[in-house]
Amino acid sequence: MSAIAMDAATLWWVLGTALTFLGLGVMLAAPALLRKLLAFNVMGSGVFLVLLALRPRGPDGVADPIAQALVLTGIVIAIASTALGLMLARRYHLATGRDSLPEDAPEGTDD
Amino acid sequence: MTEVFLLPLAVLLPLLMACCVHVSADRFARPLQWVGALGMATLVLALVAHDAPMRTVLGGWEAPLGIELVADRLAKTLLVFTLLVYAAVLLYAEGYFAQSPIEARRFRPLAWLLWAACNAAFLSDDLFNLYVTLELAGLTAVGLAALSGHPKALAAALRYLLAALLAANLFLLGLALLYGSTGVLSLRMLAAAVEPGTASLLAFVLLVTALALKTALLPLHTWLPPAHGGAVTPVSALLSALVIKVSFVILLKLWLHFAPVLDLVVLGQGLAVMGALAVVWGSLLALRQQRLKMLVAYSTVAQVGYLFLPFAWLRPGTPAAAVAFDASVLQILGHGFAKAAMFLAAGVLLRAAGRDGLEGLQGAASRQPLAVFALALAGISLIGLPPSLGFSAKWSMLQAALLAGQWPWVLLLLTGSLLTAAYVFRAIRYAFLPAPDVSELRPVPALMSYSALLLAVLAAFGGLGTATLAAWLEIEIAGWPEALP
Questions:
Q1: CATH fold label, A2-104
Q2: Which residue in B266, B359, B367, B435 has the fewest CB atoms around it within 10 Å?
């Protein structure tokens, strides 16, 4: 029983780490703003998985309420950040017609 | 007993003010702001007057489940610092936004929200709460940076937001690793529960990287100059004086808690070396700028470098530690006052000239003597001439370096001061050139120059209070245990 629980925790841990690095890589490499914001959310989900995998149970053996509260708060913050990012990206697109920042644009642009 | 009300109020009052100024009409918002600012002044004074360290558990839930607010002397110093910067910036903003009520309406609630985030960060003793305040400050700052709605400001705000989001995830990952191994979040309990070893060090390095990115330490600084230089002037002042200090103060707090338990010698030297590179590279970039606000923004990159130098000497059980701690606090205050003053003065000069190229400053010395005086006084502090706060900070760093037997840092401090003098004088030289055309002069409310001058005077003469401040703060570092093997 405990071996199965261990395996599950390891699975979540490995998945979480993989998602974190995937998100990190795309966030740094992808030029498009929308992709960067999506990658931020993927990376965030990875971090949440790692948090829950490292702390599945509290000291008394039941699910750790603090870890779950932290992840819930984290999700709220991530949604708020994403909303702000989408709003700014949309405004930027309306103003300039661009979907990526000038420094990240694939071809050399002015400005 | 009073701390039960006072500590949460330092966060609640600005939060409440943010809501009130947002919903009230313009003619009410202005007097309301002054009532709020007076309330904050009273509150901060009451906190400082209460000499003992203050602690309160929110909602009556003790740690590890609950969240603690702690007002030690470091936090109290920072609350006063924030209050002074806000007093000047809010005064200035009334003049600055007099012609553009829409921007004023966007500025007021965000500025108050940022104040709440700053105070919460300075008072929190809980790693996750620090993460939340970091996010609150970061998102508010992004909103402020995008205030004008100009495409360039939007691009700068987006770049800033992406850097902040990346930092947030890295911070959360470090937090997850620490929480996973210890099960506590209060800094005090974390420092007691954390096991020295590679895993804890990795978690700490993640936290430090996130905070260095938020503080714009070289080579993670590229988001800063467009965001700070491209924002409207009162916002530039708040971003450079306060927002980067929030992440730095969190780093300093983590360092004070973890340095006695983890082996941070190599990390400290590494941060100091990056700081040294930032001092030189940031100053060189500032020298090459053609626009006044970009010059001031690149100067922040260099001054952030100075913030990271003391980590080379902040080791428990060494004689240099106390001096290095003083140096960090003095650099926070010195750069905060001086840089805010510089941005505010630059805003006056640019508005008078109607353009933001350095050549637009010509003749400013006779047209806007107060603003040029403020710019020069702030420059004195950045260069590090006595009796400024900047001088005290650099003098403390010099002392710490010599106490630790690391004299090469002295050369860096001298080089940094020379480079700073070069870019400050470059800006001031333009101000003393004869004006090409007097008819271009535009009127600027005198209030704006006076608020810039207020901060500049604090920066330029604050060094006189160094000994008092150091004696007052001594207790925060004296409690450090000897270094563990």
A1: Helix Hairpins (1.10.287)
A2: B266
